[in-house]
Fold:
Amino acid sequence: MAGNFQGWLIKFGNVQLPNSFLLADGWESTPNQRVEIDAYRDANVLLHRETAANFKTKIKLNIRDMTLDERTAFNNVIGLASLPEEDNRQRRVSVTYWNDETLQYASGIFYMSDTTYGIHRLDDNKNDIEYNAFTLTLTEY
Structure:
């Protein structure tokens, strides 16, 4: 099965996010999360569960610190995967990712949650910003 891995972890649309954007230990995934539709215990206290047929994945990307130019390149990669929607309110992106449970690549539509960005330093001479590392969280629809 190791032959399935092609050296990258995530693509936004058809564009591979360079691994160099990730911190060491920068990838966390909870693949194929089961969604419980209904659960109950019968008169014999046996548990009965109804689970949805489709599973959902959650991905956390711990992104390294970067300059304004690097952040622009990073945003461009994500922007290419954005799906059309009214006013871009949902932050829906098309993603292909390494599924750590099946050890194969999978694709889906993900919601990109609110992200907090911190600035480490401003460079007045170069008109540049140095951003701190941040975490990008994606949850499959």
Remarks:
- The first helix runs from residue 68 to 79.
- The domain at 2-140 is CATH 2.40.30 (Elongation Factor Tu (Ef-tu); domain 3).
- The radius of gyration is 19 Å.
